[in-house]
Amino acid sequence: MNNLLTGLHQFHNRFGREREFYSKLAAGQHPSALFIGCSDSRVDPSIITQTGLGELFVMRNAGNIVPCYGASNGGEPATIEYAVSALGVKDIIVCGHSGCGAIQAMLHPETMAKLPSVKSWLNHAEATRQIILENYPKLTGEDQLAAAVREHVLVQIENLQTHPAVAVQLQRGELTLHAWIYRMQTGEVLAYSSDDGKFTALTSLPPEEAGKRKVSNPRQAKKK
Ligand SMILES: [Zn+2]
């Protein structure tokens, strides 16, 4: 706890030095993106993306799960709706990560016997579990977990599109969806592209190529 108290003092000192910036922030927020990530303490969105206060609207939970619209009474639908309809974010990033404990638990439900709330929450990720069991039957261990992390992020992107606010902005072409995976062994972020169906490290690409890696917009394509 002491390190947290030290941090509070350091931040308060910085606040005093940058008062003008924080006064503007206090007047209102204008984040450009909604970042949906795992609660894992090693996967901090602002640190990974080197963004500051006010730049990201963040939703974190165990396993970076986006329940389908109507499937959860938790805060997820409200957070998504507020980010898209009230704040007008232009991008939504769903970011999974290597070695995710929630995904590992979801693959092995027997490990959650004494964690009834976790087990219940991870039921929202049942589609991922079925995809891995049915379509990747030969994978085990780390290979199975890595495949599950990838498939899981893509399932959450599909779930996002069941949210009315997201569907509306996608059809207008005013929202872009991104599927990312943070690899904690290397510090890289891999991004999925619908063009090649692969996850590729963004930092291995020139900026103009990295900027093109996104999930294509099925609703907008239908309009053409
Ligand atoms: Zn995780």
What does this structure look like?
The chain is 46% helix and 17% strand. The chain contains eleven helices and six strands. It has a six-stranded mixed sheet with strand order 2-1-3-4-5-6. The longest helix has 20 residues, at 141-160. The mean pLDDT is 94. The protein has helices at 2-17, 19-27, 45-49, 76-86, 101-107, 116-122, 126-135, 141-160, 164-172, 207-210, 218-223; strands at 33-38, 56-61, 91-97, 176-183, 188-193, 198-201. By secondary structure, it is an alpha/beta fold. The chain has two domains: 1-30; 33-223, Carbonic anhydrase (Beta-carbonic Anhydrase, Chain A, 3-Layer(aba) Sandwich), CATH 3.40.1050.10. A hairpin with a 4-residue loop joins β5 and β6. 32% of the residues are buried. Bound molecules: zinc ion. Residues 38, 40, 63, 97, 100-102 line the site of zinc ion.
Q: Percentage of helical residues?
A: 40-55%
CATH superfamily of the largest domain: Carbonic anhydrase
What class would the helix/strand composition place it in?
alpha/beta
Quickly count the helices.
11
Q: Regarding CATH, which class of the largest domain?
A: Alpha Beta
Distance linking N and C termini: 56 Å
- Averaged pLDDT, please? 94
How many DSSP E strands? 6
Q: Which H/E pattern describes the elements?
A: HHEHEHEHHHHHEEEHH
Globally, the shape reads globular
Strand order of the largest sheet: 2-1-3-4-5-6
